[in-house]
Amino acid sequence: MNPASDDLHVLLGAYVLGGLSDEDHRAYSEHLRTCGPCQTELGQVSGLPRLLDLAGPEGGPHLSDGPAAAPTPLMTEPDDERVTSLLGEVARRRRRRRTWLSGLAAAAAAVFFAGGAWLGPKLTEATTPTPPTTHVAAAAVPGSSVRVDIALVTRGWGTQLDIDCEDMPKTGALVLWVIDGKGHATAAASWRATATGYSKVTGATALRPNEIQALEVRTDTGKVLASAKT
Fold it and tell me: Where is the chain membrane-spanning (predicted)?
């Protein structure tokens, strides 16, 4: 083979396996007509596609991972060792692919399990009964324009008080007082006034909702801004 045909000579493997473009296939076919060494090598490896078909998608019994009987030689050409080496590489790649797919499946299972572990409690929470809640709108006292809504949420330890108020004083401290049936007042929440006059806070009292007779929002100086009967 003359030096000008070196580039075409390296295309032998792709030619045998059908990996050439139409243009390269035509060029190599022309080359084979005059190149004796390429014709000889082609005869030595022409059985490779048949061997790959025999190997099958799992590498064939002669390439499997487990123990097997000694394989019967499939070729008697001088380049059997090279062909066997190529088949061994194909088998190794397929085994790596199976290992990768197994790892991917394990990762997907882990994600699914984690999702179930996260979703399970959420589903349980969704079925938990909502505690009884009563909304009370506190009326502003004369001279005050505040708006106060208080949600009384029944809890095992007493009552949770969710306070939502607007147009409140913008300085000083504010306090929510709960008054029981005997007229005793207890501070259930306190907070600082905001620059916008809007506040949303949560307070608590040991009194049950039915034990609360009245609610009052006062300033830290004791001035009543809004009150409500329950």
Answer: 100-120
